[in-house]
Amino acid sequence: MLKASFVDVDITPETGLPLGRLFINVLIPERVRWPLKARIAVFDDGTARSVIIGLDLAITVKPSVAEIRQAVAAGTDLRPTDIMVACTHTHNGPAAWDWRPGEGIEFLDFLKDRVPEGVQKALDGLTTVELIAGTIDAPGWCYNRRPVYRGTDGKEHVGTHGPRGGSDFLRVEGPEDNQLQAILFRDSTGAPVGGLVNFACHPTNMYGVKAWSADYIGPLTDSLREAYGCPFVFLNGCSGNLSQVSGIPGKEREGGEAYCEAMGTALGAKAIEALAGGRRGRDPAIAMRREEIPIAQRRPTAKMIELSRWYLEQDPEDIDQEAFTYRMYGHPYTMYHNSPAFQEWIARETLGMWEWQRRAASRELFEDVEIQVITIGDVAIAGIPCEYFSEFGLEIKRKSPFVNTLVVHLANGWHGYIPTYEGLAHGGYESRFAYQSRLVPDAGYMMRDTALALLNRLG
């Protein structure tokens, strides 16, 4: 007999902390637009318990996840490994780690107080449930952000967030994932208790706005609460190469507060439509598996280190950014519109990686990457700790033995962007070596194979 409970906890900090985005500029929020939440789901089948926590944060790193898990498990019969901590990836939340000195530790301590309170409230409110699972396509809100261009060298190069047009434009590199999955849990009277919703898209509508914001996840979950009278936990899909910006010439800019609300509300309506035609889940027993796999980091070339140092020391004002980028790593673009500030940030991150690796005093530096799978009957939730390309998520869903498989990236940590082989060959922001893209080319395939092995073991 499956029991479940859902709780929302407001984790919006006081103004004064900066937005914890992974970029050089610092913005201090002046207001709140769609409060930041910790959305909590607890499941219990009488033998096993699992907890899923969705945080309105850009990322959490593995040590922060460990602290949150320990704080949640303390004083309960939960094990830390029973808990999945996933980030929605909104770029309008604070850092929960020491990204800039002293910036994130205070907020992490705040999370370690607030989130366990919410989990305990959910544990106290467990009630017998059945689940309804719905799946629907929701096109027009998310796009592959990696257009491929023919370079002057005759080769193909990606310029992230570039236009889908122009004489050198060839095609978009990879697919979108328009599938939206919604899972509703109802008590013995048929009353909704809570739900899960899974959709893949970067939450960057509010980028540059000086406000705390859950981005489109705010209006999406608000609309579901209004429709069903209960909380929904949002789980972001594999959107490392996806965003709401299409790059289609002549199309109105996708972003800003009004567009954010329209996107979230439309996706909420799609979730309601999916559930209206949903199916009843079978055999609602809980099972969990996890595995840590060591994955090596890529290493910078001597040229990358030399040119990064030169750029930071010389601070060149009139340099040809595309030519310099090509000289440094073999592609003319990082973002399509290379900027001096962005180039400076990448140079610093490249040197930071070099310092990290050389101090390890090892030929290869490995990161222990956790893949976690939680199943509830014939529904599976697969957590991947990175910004995973859509190709991997689509393949895992297609090959999974479960009727519904929700692939969740940025779960239980962050090991940077994980492109495909093709993505690495084409370059672009997600592939350019630095802290935000640092694992070996095989990384995504190793994660995929591990996730599928765990799913097949449970299926």
Could you walk me through the main structural features you see in this protein, from its secondary elements to its overall organization?
The chain is of the alpha+beta class and 459 residues long. The chain has 2 domains: 3-142 and 173-286 and 370-418 and 444-458, no CATH class; 298-359, no CATH class. 30% of the residues lie in helices and 26% in strands. The chain has helices at residues 62-73, 105-124, 217-228, 257-276, 302-314, 321-329, 340-359, 390-399, 421-426, 443-458, and strands at 3-10, 31-32, 37-44, 49-55, 83-87, 127-128, 130-137, 143-144, 147-150, 156-158, 169-172, 179-186, 192-199, 211-212, 232-236, 242-243, 279-280, 286-296, 366-376, 379-384, 387-388, 404-409, 417-418. It has a 5-stranded mixed sheet, covered by helices on one side.
Number of helices: 10
Number of strands: 23
Radius of gyration, Cα only, in angstroms? Answer: 21 Å
Distance between the termini: 19 Å
Quickly give the structural class.
Answer: alpha+beta
| Average residue pLDDT | 95
- What portion of residues is helical? 25-40%
Overall domain count: 2
